[in-house]
């Protein structure tokens, strides 16, 4: 702001920002947008890679194979075709460490969908995961069905 006086009257004038100030502001805006886009792409890539790793894991594949081998459970889903979805990373029922894996896998057939609950333990002698239990919980209209799949 500038104050000028002519014959006892003060005039207030607002100066416009300089060209360098505007160019710095535009550069900061562009940098903020670029950083936001780059961060979003990084998070999306990380999510995709984590889901890909879970789907390729031994305990995940063993559970899906057991489900596909159980004709009663597959018939209740209306499968084939069986659609296996990504696990929910924030679900507290999914617990995995180097010795133990307990996961909830969303699955869907042509009739209904549900969750495949599975728990596996690593066999220390063979250094492989072994399925301990597998169960399928489906929901049709207002009722829920639980299928215990023998291991």
UniProtKB/TrEMBL annotation:
Superkingdom, natural source: Eukaryota
Annotated protein name in UniProt: Ribosomal protein L37
Higher taxonomy: Eukaryota, Metazoa, Chordata, Craniata, Vertebrata
Keyword Transmembrane in record: yes
Entry keywords, A to Z: Membrane, Transmembrane, Transmembrane helix
TM spans (from-to): 32-50
InterPro entries recorded: Coa1 (IPR014807)
Species, as recorded: Neogobius melanostomus
Biological processes, Gene Ontology terms: mitochondrial respiratory chain complex I assembly; mitochondrial respiratory chain complex IV assembly
A Pfam family reported for this protein in Swiss-Prot or TrEMBL: Coa1
Gene Ontology CC annotation, any one: mitochondrial inner membrane
